[in-house]
């Protein structure tokens, strides 16, 4: 699948966002090796800390269906720069996706910033840091 199509999937995902509090819609589209796309949107809650970002919605959907071979992710929001994922999402992406996987950060103006997982969270805390 080409990147433009993956970005379009993220825009479609964004339409499903449940954002009564922030009114800030975010969409993500996660591509797997076999070409399957998992869409994710942000889902908020009256108990604000329960809000879930689009990126983690997409990843948790995919992982819980048994997917492990992730090859790219696109994220979109109505921001002036390509939308930067929050720290929590960077940590989760870093754990579940390959270090060299590309993340396409975008906005509705068509700006695209391409980063690897390693670039998204350099030196991430990881399983290797746990002494078991
Ligand atoms: O990369 C991002 C940044 C923010 N949000 C969500 C969380 C919350 O619902 C709203 C405002 O922070 O946007 C995402 O889903 N992804
Ligand atoms: Zn996040």
TrEMBL record:
InterPro entries: APOBEC/CMP_deaminase_Zn-bd, CMP_dCMP_dom, Cyt/Deoxycyt_deaminase, Cyt_deam_tetra, Cytidine_deaminase-like. Residues 1-128 form the CMP/dCMP-type deaminase domain. Transmembrane segments: none annotated. It comes from the Bacteria. One of its GO terms (molecular function) is identical protein binding. Its EC number is 3.5.4.5. GO terms for cellular component: cytosol. The keyword Hydrolase applies. Its cofactor is Zn(2+). Keywords: Hydrolase, Metal-binding, Zinc. GO terms for biological process: nucleobase-containing small molecule metabolic process; pyrimidine-containing compound metabolic process. Substrate binds at residues 42-48. Zn(2+) binds at residues 53, 86, 89. It catalyses: cytidine + H2O + H(+) = uridine + NH4(+); 2'-deoxycytidine + H2O + H(+) = 2'-deoxyuridine + NH4(+). The active site is at 55 (proton donor). This enzyme scavenges exogenous and endogenous cytidine and 2'-deoxycytidine for UMP synthesis. Belongs to the cytidine and deoxycytidylate deaminase family. This is Cytidine deaminase. The lineage of its organism: Bacteria, Bacillati, Bacillota, Bacilli, Bacillales.
């Amino acid at each position: 699948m080409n990147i433009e199509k993956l970005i379009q999937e993220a825009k479609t995902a964004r339409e499903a966002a449940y954002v009564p509090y922030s009114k800030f819609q975010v969409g993500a589209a996660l591509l797997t090796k076999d070409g399957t796309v998992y869409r994710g949107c942000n889902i908020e809650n009256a108990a604000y800390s329960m809000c879930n970002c689009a990126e983690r919605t997409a990843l948790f959907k995919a992982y819980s269906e048994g997917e492990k071979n992730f090859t790219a992710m696109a994220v979109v929001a109505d921001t002036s720069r390509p939308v930067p994922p929050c720290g929590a999402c960077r940590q989760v992406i870093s754990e579940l996706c390959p270090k060299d996987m590309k993340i396409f950060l975008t906005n509705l103006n068509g700006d695209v910033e391409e980063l690897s997982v390693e670039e998204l969270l350099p030196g991430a805390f990881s399983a290797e840091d746990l002494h078991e």
